[in-house]
């Protein structure tokens, strides 16, 4: 019988990344048919529990012990321990085994590569959900150039391993497929749990709007969160009571708070930290007129899709990945143009008919194209032939 091993050692923190969401939702659904062993660590176990993924008859969890240490040292320890375990892990019947590496980070991709060398008949399903932009030519924002450089350098040795040894590569959009021209690539556009959204709507039909816009995502240089505060200052110059609600946390939280204070926006921006899936988050989306996602580079992402399922339009920079990822329901403005972004928000605040029309397009698009059940079945059919 076919079986899966999920190698998911990169999961970290109180939030959840798009790649984490994908492997959790795939495991939830694929384990109904095939046995899955999840190799992770304490933070991965906690993340799965928060998202209601529990061990069951077809799903077992193997947690690798990682010694307590400062963040950077513990990060390095995860890599070395994972590599060591990949040399001693025994796999019965490798020809019927599918190994899913949950990220391109070294603690997931290196042990998967080693296991593929040890067991050539094993089928390696590699994931590559974010290509770091070239920090010298592709990501001009100097404030974040060092972070971009580190991510770019970390991916350099991994890409050829995946290109030459993975049986399948899961990517986020059609542009990413071009990075692996000789591989069997599968585009994973992400998804939304529309069943839970329907349940919430049935129980909460009349919710008053409270926020002009909602942001959801990591407080990370990639997401443009500090820039969003500058954008909101322009919005407030036109609508002095306009409120932005921001869901998420991350390394830029102190800088975001400082920027809010410097621009005297304390009454106009609500910082909620992480809000997990469920009624609380759904209420915030329902209370918002639109979603804003000023990512400076991205390969797709699901944060906007989740908000769009509530019938509200999204606004984002015109990133190449969004052409295929969000063909409907999203207003796109020139990359890095903060004033154009602010004007797009103001335009939708000024014109409710236009805002509602794009919102209806967004909801219809998500419901027809972004169901988790559909997405999990689609990808499974591609990797198991």
Notes on the protein architecture:
Residues 200-364 form the Glycosyl transferase family domain. InterPro entries: Glyco_trans_1 (IPR001296). Keywords: Transferase. This is Glycosyltransferase. It is a single chain. This protein is α/β, with parallel strands linked by helices. The chain folds into two domains: 3-191 and 372-383, Glycogen Phosphorylase B (Rossmann fold, 3-Layer(aba) Sandwich), CATH 3.40.50; 194-369, 3-Layer(aba) Sandwich (Rossmann fold), CATH 3.40.50. It is 44% helix and 15% strand. It contains 16 helices and 13 strands. It has helices spanning 18-30, 42-50, 71-88, 106-118, 145-155, 158-165, 174-177, 194-203, 225-238, 253-262, 279-286, 303-308, 322-325, 338-350, 352-369, 372-383; strands spanning 3-7, 36-40, 59-63, 97-101, 123-128, 168-171, 185-187, 213-216, 244-247, 269-273, 291-293, 314-317, 330-333. The chain has a seven-stranded parallel sheet with strand order 3-2-1-4-5-6-7, with helices on both faces. A three-stranded parallel sheet has the order 8-9-10. Strands 11-12-13 form a three-stranded parallel sheet. α4 runs parallel beside α6 and α9 (225-238) packs parallel to α10 (253-262). The protein is globular and about 65 Å long. The model has no long low-confidence stretch (mean pLDDT 92).
């Amino acid at each position: 019988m076919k079986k899966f091993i999920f190698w998911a050692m990169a999961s970290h923190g109180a939030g959840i990344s798009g790649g984490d969401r994908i492997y959790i939702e795939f495991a939830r659904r694929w384990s109904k048919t095939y046995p899955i062993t999840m190799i992770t660590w304490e933070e991965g176990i906690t993340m799965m529990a928060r998202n209601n993924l529990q061990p069951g008859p077809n799903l077992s969890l193997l947690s690798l012990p990682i010694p307590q240490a400062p963040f950077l040292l513990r990060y390095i320890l995860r890599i070395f321990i994972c590599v060591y375990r990949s040399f001693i892990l025994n796999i019965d019947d490798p020809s019927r085994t599918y190994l899913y590496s949950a990220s391109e980070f070294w603690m997931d991709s290196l042990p998967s590569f080693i296991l593929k060398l040890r067991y050539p008949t094993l089928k390696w399903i590699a994931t590559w959900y974010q290509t770091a932009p070239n920090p010298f030519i592709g990501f001009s924002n100097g404030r974040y150039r060092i972070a971009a450089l580190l991510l770019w350098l970390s991916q350099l040795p991994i890409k050829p391993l995946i290109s030459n040894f993975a049986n399948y590569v899961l990517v986020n959009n059609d542009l990413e497929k071009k990075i692996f021209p000789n591989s069997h690539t599968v585009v994973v556009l992400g998804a939304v749990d529309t069943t839970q959204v329907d349940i919430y709507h049935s129980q909460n039909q009349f919710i008053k709007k409270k926020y002009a816009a909602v942001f959801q995502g990591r407080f990370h240089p990639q997401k443009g969160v500090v820039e969003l505060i500058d954008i909101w200052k322009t919005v407030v110059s036109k609508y002095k009571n306009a409120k932005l609600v921001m869901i998420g946390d991350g390394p830029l939280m102190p800088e975001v708070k400082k920027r809010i204070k410097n621009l005297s926006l304390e009454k106009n921006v609500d910082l909620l930290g992480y809000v997990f899936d469920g009624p609380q988050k759904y209420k915030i989306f329902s209370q918002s007129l639109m979603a804003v996602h000023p990512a400076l580079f991205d390969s797709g992402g699901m944060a906007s899709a989740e908000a769009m399922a509530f019938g509200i339009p999204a606004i984002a920079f015109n990133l190449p990945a969004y052409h295929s990822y969000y063909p409907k329901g999203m207003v796109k403005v020139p990359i890095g143009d903060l004033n154009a972004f602010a004007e797009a928000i103001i335009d939708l605040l000024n014109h409710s008919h236009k805002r509602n029309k794009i919102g209806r397009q967004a909801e219809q698009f998500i419901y027809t194209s972004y169901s988790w059940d559909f997405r999990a079945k689609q990808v499974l059919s591609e990797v198991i032939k």
